[in-house]
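> call design_seq(struct)
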């Protein structure tokens, strides 16, 4: 394929006539560059529809690729989570549809059934994700787990007592443990920053569709099959739910593509697989790593994990009152059919809210603001339910408003995956860790806050949910603060990364990396380790010898970079993306900046990052002016005045060549 060059004129001081050229193949320029579909010139209707569903907009190659992902991966994830939610929540429908009376469950058995399920989830979640990282592909592991839990659900339809249900509920939870975090990791492994939020919302809300179907299914079975073959309607529901899951599990064996670097999906050709790797690497997503004890330790000591867990946990708990809506309906004398179907309107509302807020998050990037907005609505609903003694229509409205709260968690998940892009193990365990802690709460919290014998009015359950929303807002603000580091630290981190991996084509040796840090290596096609910022430093100090420059670079430039690297939101993604594949990289440590750094370096680096093209014009001038006076050794490493650099912006990476 021919090289596509698009010259961009650069004004100079008259001494040197230069221009910046974007260099690459047609596909590189039109596809990787256009992972933001808004940057692609397409028809107005595609632009408009693309706001709501991005696979309609962008380059043809990108559209075809995303449409395949949606057709296979996203469809299976939604179906799989749909049936998972049915199999998780059918207990609630069965309880209000005759199971309570048939099995004489007049104590706290309902909450204990949920607790046994939660214990299964807790014990199974992290091992299930680690198995996917080390031993079994997701395309095999997840469908097999789904097949097993479907069989256990069928068994629940034949249970004669609550003790049997306790055992089966535990194993259903244990098998389902791989599902939610595994699906979230798959989505985060394939979709980009402008694609993930809405799909995470759709994925999560397939559970709401599951709850709706469960309600309608239970109502239909209660009406049509109650008493057939000696079984109650609630027993038939377990049998039907389990049978539905079996073909979905079989579909998963073919639909799940694993991850871009390891995919064997039949629906991707060789070029599409290569394109997929280029695409996710342009998002800063690192390839899968072998799971080791060291990498596990790195995950659980990473601040990004715990900055994610607090808002993830709290937004999930804050709208927990939706689980008790049907108990209020039953207490008010609604029929069995109405008790099962009225909450489905709330599920429909949660679907609209989650997709709507997800679209807004993808389009604007204002994740924190949107999460806070959702939680304020949840607080309003829980305040009404805390007051309680208000007209029934107001209670009904508050219960429905709680369902809007389901829009927050998909945004938290998508945001977390962006922050964890550089660490594949962290991405895989991010939601899993949050899920374990969430289910630890669910194993005991309902017993204390929402005891069955107090239903439908609870002494302090909804008040505590208000506190959870407040903590969710606080965690979101703290997480946002951690992603906006000290501006100078971020500037330096960006610029040093820019220079470290963007060398020239000469064959100068790379300096030895500091111990326990990232290997400081150039791009494989550009082996000189000296970055543009260092070249500018040479221009600032024309009397400095080449040996003195190398000493400065190794003793001050690199340690300064390492001391500031942790202040940048994108730096780890950037390093892992360009590090040679055969080099071992580890988490950068926080070093004390060396003495001797000059203010001029700070200023130059800041201008390079925030005024990319203009800064390179200025850098090029200094570079060209100094070029006439440099030594032969310097000329070799500068490689005939060709400067290759990478400008890093949020959401895109573009290579420039300065001639």
């Amino acid at each position: 394929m021919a090289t596509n060059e698009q010259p961009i004129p650069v004004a100079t001081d008259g001494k040197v006539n230069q221009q910046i050229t974007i260099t690459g193949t047609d596909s590189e320029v039109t596809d990787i560059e256009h992972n933001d579909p808004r940057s692609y010139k397409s028809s107005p209707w595609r632009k408009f529809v693309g706001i709501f569903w991005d696979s309609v907009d962008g380059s043809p190659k990108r559209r075809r690729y995303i449409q395949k992902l949606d057709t296979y991966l996203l469809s299976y994830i939604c179906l799989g989570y749909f049936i998972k939610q049915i199999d998780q929540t059918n207990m609630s429908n069965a309880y209000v549809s005759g199971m309570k009376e048939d099995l004489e469950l007049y104590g706290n058995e309902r909450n204990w059934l949920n607790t046994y399920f939660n214990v299964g989830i807790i014990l199974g979640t992290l091992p299930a994700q680690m198995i996917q990282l080390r031993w079994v592909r997701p395309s095999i592991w997840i469908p097999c787990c789904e097949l097993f839990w479907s069989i256990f659900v069928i068994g629940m339809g034949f249970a004669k007592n609550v003790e049997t249900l306790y055992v089966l509920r535990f194993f259903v939870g244990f098998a389902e443990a791989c599902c939610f975090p595994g699906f979230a990791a798959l989505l985060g492994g394939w979709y980009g920053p402008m694609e993930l939020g809405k799909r995470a919302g759709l994925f999560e809300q397939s559970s709401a569709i599951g709850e709706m179907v469960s309600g309608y299914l239970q109502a239909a079975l209660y009406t049509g099959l109650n008493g057939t073959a000696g079984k109650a309607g609630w027993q038939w529901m377990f049998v039907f739910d389990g049978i539905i899951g079996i073909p979905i599990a079989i579909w998963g064996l073919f639909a799940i593509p694993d991850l871009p670097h390891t995919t064997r999906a039949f629906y991707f050709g060789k070029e599409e697989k290569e394109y997929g790797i280029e695409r996710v690497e342009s998002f800063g997503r690192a390839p899968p790593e072998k799971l080791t004890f060291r990498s596990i330790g790195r995950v659980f000591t990473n601040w990004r994990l715990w900055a994610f867990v607090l808002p993830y946990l709290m937004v999930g708990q804050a709208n927990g009152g939706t689980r008790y809506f049907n108990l209020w309906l039953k207490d008010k004398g609604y029929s069995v059919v109405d008790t099962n179907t009225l909450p489905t309107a709330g599920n429909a509302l949660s679907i609209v809210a989650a997709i709507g807020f997800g679209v807004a998050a993808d389009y604007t990037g204002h994740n924190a603001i949107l999460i806070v907005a959702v939680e304020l609505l949840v607080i309003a609903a829980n305040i009404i339910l805390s007051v309680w003694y208000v007209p029934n229509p107001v209670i009904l409205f508050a219960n429905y408003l709680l369902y809007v709260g389901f829009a927050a968690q998909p945004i938290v998940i998508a945001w977390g995956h962006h922050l964890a892009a550089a660490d594949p193990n962290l991405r895989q365990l991010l939601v899993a860790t949050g899920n374990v802690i969430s289910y630890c709460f669910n194993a005991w919290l309902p017993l204390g806050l929402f005891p069955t014998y107090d239903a439908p009015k609870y002494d302090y359950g909804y008040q505590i949910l208000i506190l959870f929303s407040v903590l969710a807002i606080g965690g979101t603000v703290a997480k946002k603060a951690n992603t906006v580091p000290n501006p100078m630290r971020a500037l330096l981190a960006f610029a040093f990364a820019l220079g470290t991996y963007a060398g020239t084509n000469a064959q100068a040796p790379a300096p030895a990396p500091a111990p326990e840090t990232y290997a400081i290596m150039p791009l494989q096609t550009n082996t000189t380790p000296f970055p543009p910022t260092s070249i500018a430093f040479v221009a600032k100090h024309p009397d400095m010898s080449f040996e003195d420059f190398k000493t400065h670079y190794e003793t001050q430039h690199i340690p300064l970079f390492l001391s500031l690297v942790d202040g940048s939101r994108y730096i780890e993604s950037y390093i892992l993306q360009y590090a040679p594949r055969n080099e071992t990289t580890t988490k950068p440590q926080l070093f004390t900046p060396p003495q001797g750094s000059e203010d001029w370096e700070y200023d130059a680096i800041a201008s390079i990052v925030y005024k990319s093209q203009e800064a390179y014009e200025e850098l090029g001038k200094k570079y060209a002016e100094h070029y006439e006076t440099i030594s032969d050794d310097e000329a070799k490493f500068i490689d005939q005045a060709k400067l290759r650099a990478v400008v890093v912006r949020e959401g895109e990476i573009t290579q420039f060549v300065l001639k």
